[in-house]
Design brief:
Oligomer: heterodimer
Shape of chain B: globular
Order of helices and strands of chain B: HHHHHHHH
Mean pLDDT of chain A: 87
Strand content of chain B: under 5%
Low-confidence stretches of chain B: none
Mean pLDDT of chain B: 92
Order of helices and strands of chain A: HHHHHH
Strand content of chain A: under 5%
Largest sheet of chain A: none
Helix content of chain A: 55-70%
């Protein structure tokens, strides 16, 4: 069964930091927004980039000192989960607009 | 009639038609249903522009009204494909988007239908409430296109900085948003233009030129977006690479 990547990352964030459920989900949501992404339809590659390049800064703003390590732990956990949405979906707007270029 | 000004509109129609053909060819090579919807929209809009301008550039006698009416009907059919394209690409899972498509199509059908029954075949009767009903249908559609395109561009730019979106795709959203907004301006320009026509049975040169200019601009933007020349694609890629270096 496909795992919701947003829920997956938010739960891990809650486990490994002092943030409660609401704060963990909110911080993750902000990081996704900074990256130009939405929680729905998130792919593994997108989440990995957010964990690596955006979320550590957002966690720092929330007073989480070991933000980078937490993100590395979540990223490692991500590798062990079987997910079937790693490839870009054909109904994704980016993919549609890429194909409209005809190349 | 100011035939020279209508040449701009005719050229815009030709460009839109050829971009539509190109997008339909892309669809036939597997680009999917959204490409088919977009291709049909651009193709029909191009045909409609031609039908609107032919009787203004050449002496068509009794055929003036039927040709103009055909242009009007075909344009409104093209709007359906634009709406469905926008809904399916940007709001495929949203119920309100289906409602919006239905409402705008109803506005067009009622506007054209009732005004036709009242003998207003050309659709230039600004004093009629049914003109405004139709006008809302074909003005709110590009406004929606513009808003969705510009919103998609804003988030795609952020993704592109992280390497999660092709810069050319991010730019294509921008061009599509601009295309919609230019069409909205064109819709605003036709109001005083049609009002003048209702009074004097003649379009002003300034109105023609403004409309022709805006339509040429919109067609050019559509061409850049969907028939992207190599030099333009390379320029966008270079700019994105330079921004990535600057941003670290």
């Amino acid at each position: 069964m496909a795992v919701d990547l947003f829920d997956f990352a938010a739960e891990r964030l809650e486990q490994h930091t002092h943030l409660d459920r609401l704060a963990a989900r909110g911080t993750l949501r902000i990081a996704l927004k900074v990256a130009g992404l939405a929680p729905k339809g998130l792919t593994i590659e997108q989440l990995r980039v957010v964990l690596e390049r955006v979320l550590p800064t957002e966690l720092e703003k929330c007073g989480v000192e070991s933000g980078r390590q937490v993100c590395t732990v979540i990223s490692a956990a991500l590798a062990k989960v079987s997910l079937d949405d790693a490839a870009p979906r054909s109904d994704d707007a980016d993919e549609i607009f890429r194909r409209l270029g005809g190349r | 009639m100011q035939a020279s000004a209508f040449i701009f509109e005719a050229i815009a129609g030709l460009v839109l038609f050829s971009v539509g053909v190109r997008v339909l060819a892309t669809a036939s090579r597997g680009a999917g249903e959204p490409a088919r919807l977009l291709g049909r929209y651009l193709l029909l809009a191009g045909i409609s522009y031609a039908l609107y301008t032919v009787p203004l550039m050449f002496e068509t006698g009794d055929l003036f009204t039927p040709i103009t009416y055909a242009g009007r009907v075909i344009y409104n059919v093209s709007v359906y494909f634009a709406l469905e394209f926008t809904r399916s690409v940007f709001r495929g899972r949203e119920t309100w988007a289906r409602g919006l498509v239905t409402a705008l199509m109803l506005a067009l059908i009622v506007g054209v239908g009732v005004s036709s029954m009242q003998g207003q075949w050309d659709g230039y009767t600004v004093s009629s409430p049914w003109f405004w009903c139709e006008w809302l249908g074909y003005t709110l559609t590009p406004l929606w296109i513009g808003i969705e395109g510009l919103l998609a561009h804003a988030s795609a730019r952020r993704r592109a900085r992280l390497g999660l979106c092709d810069p050319i795709v991010a730019n294509r959203y921008l061009l599509w948003g601009l295309f919609g907004m230019i069409q909205v301006f064109a819709s605003l320009v036709i109001v005083p233009m049609y009002a003048g026509y209702e009074e004097n049975q003649q379009f002003t040169l300034a109105g023609d030129a403004a409309l022709g200019g805006l339509e040429m601009l919109a067609a050019g933007v559509a061409w850049l977006a969907f028939c992207t020349p190599r030099y333009y694609g390379a320029w966008i890629a270079r700019r994105a690479a330079a921004a990535a270096v600057k941003g670290g």
